[in-house]
Amino acid sequence: MGGAFFASYLIGLRDGLEAALVVSILVTLLIRANRRDGLPPLWTGVALALVCAGGLGAVLTYVATSVLSGVRLELFEAVTSLIAVAMVTWMIFWMRSSARTIKSELTGKLTEALGLGRFAVAALAFVAVIRESVEMVLLVFSAAQAASETVAPLLGMLAGVASAVLLGVLMYAAVARVDLGRLFTGTGVLLVLVAAGIAKYAVHGFQVAGYLPGSAATAYDWSATIEPASWYGTLLAATINVTPSATVLEVGAFIAYASLVLILFLRPAGKRTAVTA
């Protein structure tokens, strides 16, 4: 449980921080502009985004547990894992490149939304939160499937979101002084490793379903050394999906994704290509 909980906690904390940051900026701007009338529609948009994300999680869980089985289930989990990896990769680079300008960008969007009415403010808050929420649900779902657990990932995600909300309250008082670049670099590196493990799990699913070759080409087998039920075996499998055995293609996918994304992510800012929303 510990490994699955920690992996989902990290995901909930990271995506929750992004959402909390955006909401705290919007609330700050509304209060400073003396437009408290914009707060109810803003919170309505946030609530709708959370409801939609929760609905997505319920649908994914229902499909995986009650509708699909066998090869179709493996294929479904592999596809959702790839979508999760793609979303988290885009979001990591977008938040990293936009950390220094996100406040000014949101100021312009909120000013425009206030001019259009309460519905526009709710829509702005909904869009700002739904991106992180959907990404979080997909990542936690994929991590839960890889770890073959349900309760621990859910509890970890909720704990991470709760921590993010607490940090969001603290950021509200100092949103202008937060070094967002440093804030997201540390969690970004850890999340890249989690995403690499999910990419490895996606390859495994495609191999089991027969859509990728090499299911019999074993890269390593540490079954005699790493006990899957041990605390360290559970931790490795649940966080970055390092299993007691893996195929050559699984290991190649993990190393290729982690190496490429970390090199691009950790490059100096002057050499990093900007990613816009």
Give an overview in words:
- There is one protein chain.
- 78% of the residues lie in helices and 3% in strands.
- The protein has 277 residues and is mainly α.
- Helix 1 (2-32) crosses helix 7.
- The longest helix is centred in the N-terminal third of the chain and has 31 residues, at 2-32.
Keywords:
9 helices, single chain, 3% strand, 277 residues, mainly alpha, disordered C terminus, elongated
Percentage of helical residues?
A: over 70%
Distance between the termini: 36 Å
- Largest β-sheet summary: 2 strands, antiparallel
Shape: elongated
The total number of structural domains is 1
Total number of strands: 2
The low-pLDDT segments are 272-277
User: What average pLDDT do the residues reach?
Assistant: 78
Helix run count: 9
What portion of residues belong to β-strands?
A: under 5%
Specify Rg, calculated over alpha carbons. Answer: 20 Å
Please render the helix and strand layout as text:
Elements: H1 2-32, H2 39-67, H3 70-98, H4 102-116, H5 118-147, H6 151-173, H7 180-209, E1 218-221, H8 231-240, E2 245-247, H9 248-266
Antiparallel strand pairs: 1-2
Helix pairs in contact: 1-4, 1-5, 1-6, 1-7, 1-8, 2-5, 3-5, 3-7, 4-5, 5-6, 5-7, 5-8, 7-9
